[in-house]
Design a protein that fits this description.
This protein is globular. A three-stranded antiparallel beta sheet has the order 1-3-2, with no helix packed on it. It has a two-stranded antiparallel ribbon with strand order 4-5. The protein has 19 helices and seven strands. It is mostly helical.
Length: about 500
Amino acid sequence: MHNYRLPVKMRPSFVDKPTSPSSSSSSSPPSYSIEKDSKRYFGSNGNGKDCSKRNGSSSSLRNFLHFTFVPICLLTLIPNLVVLIWYTVMECDGSFSVMLWHVSHLGPAGFIINLWSSVNIFSPLAASVIFLYSIWALVLMKFIPGPRTEGPVTPRGNVPVYKDNGLACYVITMAAFVVLTVALKLTGRTPTVIYDRFDEFIVTMTVVSYIFCLVLYVKGLYWPSTNDSGSSGNFVFDYFWGLELYPRIFGIDVKVFTNCRFGMTVWPLLVCVFMLKSYELHGEIVDSALVSTILQLVYITKFFYWEAGYMRTMDIKLDRAGYYICWGCLVYVPGMYTSVSMYLVTHPVHLGPMLSGLILAAGLVSCWLNYIADRQKQVVRRTDGNCEIWGRKPEVIRATYRLENGQAHQSLLLVSGFWGIARHFHYVPELLLAFLWTVPALFQNLLPFSYLIYLFCLLIHRTHRDDFECKNKYKEHWNEYVCRVPYKVIPYVF
């Protein structure tokens, strides 16, 4: 799925040393600045200034908080959130108010005990399904053909090369799910057992992800795939953030598997499972569940159609393959992103044809706008600006920058189309689409809006991360871009 086109001086060696292109191989990756790399996650303050540099004891305390304490909290606490979503739907009638009453009645410690006592920690069924699906995804990923596409050049001069077969793998997987569902139904069984025992799948996958991230840590420490790797010397932060930017195991790109073939493919599969469970419970196709399912499937289909573009986004080009991104795609995406569909199984809402049609139409337009905005940037960069955006030649800033090895490169900053309205205007239709596939649940409970709230926080955080990264990369060219496009997401608002 993933190869690397290395700089000429680095060929033909696959794992290269950052100290010298001609140096011999080593058993461990180099160290790197923990402050520099971690700021890609923690970012900077609102003025784009580096907030991590302090003097004396305040600097040591800040480093401990950011690079040890916060990762430990995320490693230990966040998995409870996904289980909590399931628990609230299944045990609290989908109401956070009821869940909080349980907390006050039992006390925090008693509630945590009750929460985990409600969960089956391990299930042979869950382990078998996860294992078999992973094998299926890996086989498709390896053998389904696709055109060659390249990712952006890395800070150390490597160019990742991908086989763009995401859409084909997705379509084959969804078709196979339909065939499997029919076959199971003919034998008196159903795939909705996944809904019935979803807690087992969440916890089993959490355990698997912890082990998988440890394997990635050991691999990155001793057998890195490229020289875009390194250890900070802090085990906690390295495990949380990851050591390698583009790890491969037996030729399989780890991030493509976790992000796309697992997280983004399991999401629509679960949505379909939950839709089927709704039909089994109520004996009819409930329009609210149908509208939500269609919009989510359209969005995910758009994602795989555009997968080559995703390979150039922050998730891929900046985030290392550690717990932060791998657990998120293996567990958080299936558990949190599907929460509205899980909620609608036991909370059906009858919208009626008119309201259903309006929500569906607005959602499809939002998805189209999100795609067109992303496509504008792709077309401009692919044609070097020799194209038309909204009927006229696009305005671009030719931003030069240097890699860590000193090589000069150029990138185009688009100042026309949606990218002339705001630097991240494409987040607006994405948020609107998420709202539209959630609003069929109406407003009786807050839980269905959990993903939307999370997405809002994530995208706002990303605007700061992106500004920080681009300012450091493009320097004065980014300052010019900010002057010409002063708003981050919504003109005159943010």
